[in-house]
């Protein structure tokens, strides 16, 4: 497995500062955050190569187009969920190839379809000009955008800080066994918060991280999307 430094060095060597989702999740996996099994295929390798990769990952799966030109993948039709077999994978591939984007290096990320979670959460980081590395936590979806229901701390954070961050959002109820649902794995959420905070603190070069969403379960948590942005050189 590549180290954090190796992943960053490769991105810099290509004169980029935005890691693709694939690279961002590879980096998260390096620091011990779970991600769905993933494989990358150059789109130019053609449908057969993509299908071979899909068969190796196993169905159901998700296909996404990785391109510098695409920021919000689902808005561009670049996320194909719930692909059940090779025939559906071929249709999804054609759909991704039809997306307008000027980028010869475009690649397809084939990934396991993570099971339905208890809730989707968001964890992020920023380098604040005054406070340095900071970490953010919130419930995914409309709650975070509309309600601004998030908690922040200066990194690195202790177990106590992580526990406060988890409990102080209004949406905590959603994670706490709302209407007979299972409770989310609080230890796994706190552990992920601490890891993201530590990474932001250790690497001031990482300007921004956006893990949106992470799927929470009774046991464990999985980052299904990630975006890491480096500072200008
Ligand atoms: P966007 O760039 O639009 O944020 P995402 O990668 O977050 O794209 O995908 C959109 C949504 O699709 C996610 O919020 C999540 O609900 C679902 N999703 C994405 N990847 C997976 C996956 N591997 N397994 C299950 N659901 C997924
Ligand atoms: Mg997302």
Automatic annotation (TrEMBL):
Residues covered by the ATP-grasp domain: 25-64
Keywords carried by this UniProt record: ATP-binding, Ligase, Nucleotide-binding
Enzyme Commission identifier(s): 6.2.1.13
Keyword Signal among record annotations: no
Catalytic EC class: ligase
Entry-linked SUPFAM superfamilies: Glutathione synthetase ATP-binding domain-like
Superkingdom of source: Archaea
Gene Ontology MF terms: acetate-CoA ligase (ADP-forming) activity
Pfam families: ATP-grasp_5
PANTHER family: 3-HYDROXYPROPIONATE--COA LIGASE [ADP-FORMING], ACETATE--COA LIGASE [ADP-FORMING]
Protein name listed in UniProt: Acetate--CoA ligase [ADP-forming] I subunit beta
